[in-house]
Write a structure and sequence with these properties.
This protein is of the alpha+beta class. The chain is built from 2 helices and 8 strands.
């Protein structure tokens, strides 16, 4: 009889060990959606700062899109400046068409400020009347609020979890 009990205990130990390993391997994942930062500047002669934004949490500025109402012959200089208390950094781009896409990959912190400035290459060129600008900002996981939902709640669209 003792041999039979030992076999059962051994089986239980194996099962417990397997369950413990599976529990350690379980991973929780969350989707962190980028936030759009955007603006539209309109007027008879659009130039200078077209977007100013201050960040409330740490994260990364990713892709940026800028759309002009027309293509200027000499192009447009777009400067993105990130200001923080310790200093600033800038990146400049030349848009030769009526739109521009850039990948910034700039890390931002709480209280950082971004300014986007546009200046036509030739002041005698046509004037811009409308400029759209949008950047995506993704907060770091530690800054995000993570909610847990049951599958039924997701299917129903119920946000009260």
């Amino acid at each position: 009889m003792d041999i039979e009990i030992e076999k059962r205990v051994k089986k239980l130990e194996i099962i417990t060990e397997r369950l413990t390993r599976k529990a350690k391997k379980k991973m929780t994942s969350a989707m962190i959606t980028p936030y759009p930062i955007s603006n539209c500047a309109m007027g008879e002669d659009v130039h200078g700062p077209i977007l100013k934004y201050m960040f409330s949490e740490r994260g990364v500025i990713g892709k940026g899109l800028i759309k002009f109402d027309k293509k200027l012959k000499s192009g447009v200089i777009v400067t993105v400046t990130l200001n923080r208390d310790e200093g600033s950094q800038s990146k400049s781009f030349v848009a030769n068409g009526n739109q521009l896409m850039v990948e910034l990959g700039l890390e931002v912190y709480k209280w950082d400020r971004i300014t986007v400035i546009i200046v036509p290459n030739d002041p005698e060129d046509e004037k811009l009347n409308e400029v759209w600008v949008a950047f995506s900002w993704t907060p770091y996981v530690g800054e995000a609020t993570v909610k847990s939902f049951l599958i039924d709640q997701l299917e129903e669209g119920n946000e009260d979890a």
